[in-house]
Amino acid sequence: MAARSKRLQLRQALRGWLGWVPFIVAPFMLLFCEAWFHAQTVRNGYKKNEINKMVRSLKVEINELDVKEAHLKRMERIDDKAVLLGLIQAEPNQIIEIGVNEEPVPANPMKLADNLEEK
User: Fold this and answer.
1) In this structure, what DSSP letter does residue 99 have?
2) CB atoms within 10 A of CB 102
3) Measured distance CA(60)–CA(116) in Å, rounded
4) Can you tell me the distance from the alpha carbon of 112 to that of 99, in angstroms, rounded to the nearest whole number?
5) What whole-number distance in Å separates Cα of residue 18 and Cα of residue 36?
6) How many angstroms separate the CA atoms of 82 and 88, rounded?
């Protein structure tokens, strides 16, 4: 009988402790969640700064490429290269315009093919 009452007392003590478990576990869970959220926020901040740095460097590279493109498209540069290659400016009587049956060439090349099929 004593063993049975002892087990009954242990059960009641355990039930008493189980009632307090949520009150003990809840603050630790809240602290864990807060720490996890803070760690994620810091990690995302680092990623954001890394992406912003990459965007800035790409913008600088785009600007440099735009400047280089503008330099390469300059007519003075093309004229200088043409002289170095031995090219000369065409005179007006050297240019021959070619048309189909003395008709002006249409803006749409497919219309030109349509005209040939009809004849």
Assistant:
1) -
2) 5
3) 53
4) 10
5) 27
6) 7
Report the candidate in 99, 103, 98, 78 with the shortest Cα–Cα distance to residue 89. Answer: 78
Q: Do 112 and 106 contact (CB within 8 A), yes or no? A: yes
Determine whether 112 is exposed, middle or buried from the number of CB atoms within 10 Å of its CB (0-12, 13-18, 19+). middle
Assess contact for 100 and 118: CB atoms under 8 A.
no
- The residue that leads in pLDDT, 97 or 77, is 77
- Cα–Cα distance, 91 to 69 (Å, whole number): 30
Compute the 3-state secondary structure of the chain and give helix, strand, coil in percent, each to the nearest 5: 80, 0, 20
**For residue range 86-96, what is the model confidence (pLDDT) as tens digits?**
887 777 777 77
